[in-house]
Amino acid sequence: xxPMSRILRAxxxxxxxxxxxxxxxxxxxxxxxxxxxxxxxxxxxxxxxTQPGVDRQREQVNSTAGAVSFIDAQTYRNxxxxxxxDVLQESPGVFVQNRYSQEIRLSIRGSGIARAFHTxxxxxxxxxIPTNLADGSGDFYQIDPMGLRAIEVFRGGNALPFGASTLGxxxxxxxxxxxxxxxxxxxxxxxxxxxxxxxxxEVSRVIGNWDFHVGGTVTHxxxxxxxxxxxxxxxxxxxxxxxxxxxxTRFYAGAYYTDVxxxxxxxxxxxxxxxxxxxxGAVSGDQARNTYVQRFANVTSFKxxxxxxxxTSFVVHKHLNHPIFQVLDQDGWTYGxxxxxxxxxxxxxxxNDVVIGARIFNGTNDALQYQNLGNATRGVLTTNARxxxxxxxxxxxxxxxxxxxxxxxxxxxxxxxxxxxxxxTNLNNANIAFINQTITYGGxxxxxxxxxxxxxxxxxxxxxxxxxxxxxxxxLVQSNSLGISTFQSSLKAQTATTFEIGTRGRSGRFGWxxxxxxxxxxxxxxxxxxxxxxxxxxxxxxxxHTRLQGVEFAGSVDLFNNLASADDxxxxxxxxxYSDFRMVNDPTYGNNRLPVVPTHVLRTALTYTHPQFxxxxxxDIVPEGAFVDYRNTFKVGGYWLLGLQAxxxxxxxxxxxxxxxNLLDRRxxxxxxxxxxxxxxxxxxxxxxxxxxxxxxxxxx
Length: 701
Hints:
Blueprint: H1 4-17, H2 54-62, E1 68-72, H3 84-88, E2 94-100, E3 103-108, E4 122-126, E5 129-130, E6 150-155, E7 169-174, E8 185-192, E9 196-207, E10 210-221, E11 230-244, E12 247-261, H4 268-273, H5 280-284, E13 288-304, E14 307-323, E15 326-347, E16 350-372, E17 378-403, E18 406-427, E19 430-455, E20 458-469, H6 473-476, E21 477-479, E22 485-487, E23 494-507, E24 510-526, E25 541-561, E26 569-583, E27 600-609, E28 613-622, E29 639-650, E30 654-661, E31 669-672, E32 685-687, E33 692-700
Parallel strand pairs: 4-7
Antiparallel strand pairs: 1-6, 2-3, 4-5, 6-7, 8-9, 8-33, 9-10, 10-11, 11-12, 12-13, 13-14, 14-15, 15-16, 16-17, 17-18, 18-19, 19-20, 20-23, 21-22, 23-24, 24-25, 25-26, 26-27, 27-28, 28-29, 29-30, 30-33, 31-32
């Protein structure tokens, strides 16, 4: 364990000793790689100290010595992008599946695969600022796909520059500023299947040294399944002020509300024969998820002779009203501060680049639970607790160039994290189980690697990273057969050593990204067994030894240019994720495959782009479904889905688009709640959405 004072001293010492003429992010000219072959939209240049332009963001991401992806939001602007699957589905290695409405499964390299709700093992950020709670848990409702300018995906240990060192890495969703917005004014309205309608607008201006950007989206949908109605609202704003060409500050504000009915899971037979029905318990309990989130943050940047110092501070308030098996009523605050320095200097005649940062990231959550008497009516109070998380982190990453085109990288993250639970369980209005416990985790996660550019626009990289995933309160606080909360202080942190080798680049008509990785995982946090001594049903436990390995590939080829007119193009894109996730000599499950994630997931798209219109047929293929249970007795079926997107440019900077999905109306299982032993009569399946068609018009000026 590393006390806070030691961590902070290390961070501040590193900040103090650096002196150089160049920033780390500006030190290496590496290729701009457009794997999907589509050009960036307007607003790609420009930028400012607090947020660089899109082209610069892409260069920064692609200078990473490891597996990363960069997505310009302009590439999906002519689709009905309603949740994170719609914007991440062409990022290799990212397994993202719809459950219902905004609820998805997000797993990178097997992170959080046992979690049947929300996410674990991936740090979700907006503008570099965490949206996860301080205990590491997170959901996706705050992110508005229409309110983004770019998405940065750092798989595994490649997220270290953000201070993330989990198995899955980090995804950073970047909102526009007045300097990076696609246009000063943008308005669009979408609609389509299942009573869906959505409106979005953005306005941005630069006024002297001030700039501002304001955007918002409101969405209503009745949902494909019964009891799936949703009403969503997203508001994002930022305002920046340039004190000089060396100092800039930017304030962020956001407000988000979610009012979503939950259809629940179905049995396998129900999901395949009557997939639009809702779970009977979800209907009788009027199960829903209602969240109200407010976010405030500041980033202040100083351009120094030695590089750039960014100081980020943030506070997030979240209220949750969540009637499910009981009514969850939670109110919490998450807050933190994080300095980060990027610099470059000459070391013995060789260039050396470094990033060093620190973060204090804390939060409190008042967690109440009531009996759900039906129709979300509250009964007696069953749980009254306060959850407190404290995180103290420091990290660095260094690149030493032994040759102008060959760098050796090394880095590490030091961390100490505390999880405190104070509260009790009330049955018949009598407090019979009071808990006041704290558990502390700490350690060091090192990382080493190499980055080589043999020829311009082509990179080869390899690295070894250690990661750590900590239990969150959903893991630590469990209920026994009497409904009494217990604190699982015996849960260990999940650790992994990941080996990775890959290449990315562009040569002529071809663009690619290909990565092979293998993670040796100890104490993986899974829902795989029972603890009879504590009378706890299948929940979260540490699997002694697992191995997660696979291949991540994305490629594109421009098949033809100038087919029917000047500047038209036909581009083929292919994404393939291969996942081989297994137990290793487990005393109960041997070398069985882990459930949930299919072995192969593929997406193929063929795009014809004309100056006035574009057409893209797509095929999503899962050749063989995933196992449902840890005993590997049952797999769901594979499937393939046909889609079509098309857009046409109208006069006066307007665009009309159509987005059609699952055109053949295939029935399939989209996601699974894993179990120990398969029971097809139990409800644990999420049916995939049937045929749907959306359309809209966008106007920007």
